[in-house]
Specification:
By secondary structure, the chain is mainly alpha-helical. It is about 65% helix and about 0% strand. The chain starts with 16 loop residues before the first helix and ends in a 9-residue tail after the last helix.
Amino acid sequence: KATQRWEATCEEEGYGPSGSLLRFGPLPFFKRLTNPDEYEQAVLKYQATEKCSRLEAQGNMDAFFENPQDWAMQKMEERKGGYKRDYTLIDTQKVVLTLTWAIIVTPIVFSIFFDLVSGNYCVENPAANFCVFTGKIIHPGRY
């Protein structure tokens, strides 16, 4: 421990970045991609401190990176004898909802945003409140 770095004592299998994405969304996923060493050190420290499996440590660290306050509150409840949440499980209902947003809602929102920013909306609807408010009244044929 002289180097202040945690090292794995055995090769235990965990899950990859996609597991973080499916369990807790984009925050821990991007944390793993942008700063893998910090993520790994957090997992190893939690694993050593709590004397738990790598999967449990990864689940806890993903939950922490996703929302530190909620994670800390859950840990306090556990220490008081309350419900112990299993952070290794994937919530299939949450995954289905996320995929629905990603596949259906996001392209619609992007399309509306693109029409507004490009000015196409104001060409087709020059009297719309948005066009009048922003001063983007565009008359076809006049530039």
